[in-house]
Design a protein that fits this description.
mainly alpha; 15 helices; globular
Length: 337
């Protein structure tokens, strides 16, 4: 097995060295693809959404100076995002040449060395900016980078195991990002209000309100659907390079249906919670938007041909759009409560 693995690695290196750089692709566009745009948009909306929830919860009032705090947190999170997705591509060149040949490393638009430099700079920016902004952001970014490294990098490489791969994804996107960013913005808004910077954290700034727990649980379960669905169009490369996924174990149709029911639980659960329990959320807005999104998801999913990789990929991007929508609707529902 080791000899076969070494032969595959050598074949990949030969392909990369033989394939010339695609001159027609601008560097900025290759970098944009390398950063995985859907994850960048998701991270951006997460930062903005948790800031607005903190703003609504404690009624601090908006000020221009707060934009600097939000911008700093955004840069730290985007740096961490690029580090994690970049490292995954760096370790998956051979697999991506089968599953995602459009990505810059698989297409020869970036060399391994260029990718390593981007990853190192992105990780350094993430840590430096988060360290300069306080303990909550540093913990959020630091833990995310550690999990992202363990997910992709040998010898641990948790992505080889379907349960641990899914656990990494929904732990970061679901729990760490939401709780960490809310606590960070709650803390920095209090610092801005009192004009007294201190690393001492009063107990009341460790409190997480019900609406943030609800959003965290929603995103955590929603990300389970993303984590298991993302492997459906990638069966060929994953199987060839011994990456075990739920899709390979259970089959496309089973994972597709499981993803739909996980999303259904998310939307129905959030609707019930907003209407019956969450006092600081506009329940009517949540009910209308979430039931509409659920209906649209089921309508589109019934038209997906699981034998067509392009259709599966489009539906996967639609699921990400629903993810984006949550970070627009839920903060708005908090502001309008």
């Amino acid at each position: 097995m080791k000899q076969i693995s070494e032969q595959k690695s050598e074949l990949v290196e030969n392909k990369l060295s033989e394939s010339p750089s695609i001159q027609d692709t601008p560097v900025w566009y290759a970098f944009w693809k390398f950063s995985r745009p859907h994850t960048i948009i998701g991270t951006t909306l997460s930062v903005l959404g948790l800031y607005l929830i903190a703003l609504a919860r404690y009624e601090y009032g908006f000020s221009i100076s707060q934009l600097i705090l939000v911008l700093g947190a955004w840069i730290a999170c985007i740096g961490g995002n690029i580090y994690i997705v970049g490292l995954n591509q760096l370790e998956d060149i051979a697999i991506d040449q089968i599953n995602k040949p459009h990505l810059p490393l698989a297409a020869g638009e970036f060399s391994r060395k260029q990718a390593q430099i981007i990853i190192a700079i992105s990780g350094a920016i993430a840590l430096l900016f988060s360290a300069s902004q306080g303990p909550f952001l540093l913990a959020t970014v630091g833990i995310s980078l550690a999990i992202g490294t363990a997910y992709s990098l040998p010898p641990i490489r948790l992505k080889r195991f379907p349960f641990f791969a899914a656990l990494c994804i929904f732990t970061v996107r679901g729990a760490i990002v939401n709780l960490g960013l809310f606590l960070h913005f709650q803390w920095v808004l209090e610092v801005a209000k009192s004009a007294n910077f201190s690393f001492f954290i009063p107990d009341y700034l460790l409190f997480v309100p019900g609406e943030v727990w609800a959003l965290t649980l929603f995103v955590l379960v929603f990300t389970v659907a993303i984590a298991i669905f993302k492997d459906i169009p990638d069966m060929e490369g994953d199987r060839q390079y011994d990456i075990t996924t739920f899709t390979i174990q259970l089959g496309k149709e089973s994972v597709f249906n499981l993803s739909r029911w996980v999303l259904t639980v998310c939307y129905v659960g959030m609707t019930i919670a907003a209407v019956l329990w969450l006092r600081d959320v506009n329940g009517i807005l949540i009910a209308i938007t979430h039931l509409s999104a659920l209906g649209l998801m089921w309508f589109w999913s019934r038209k997906v041909d699981l034998q067509e990789k392009a259709e599966i990929a489009k539906f996967y991007q639609f699921i990400w759009k629903l993810f984006f929508l949550e970070y627009l609707v839920f903060p708005l529902a908090c502001l309008l409560s």
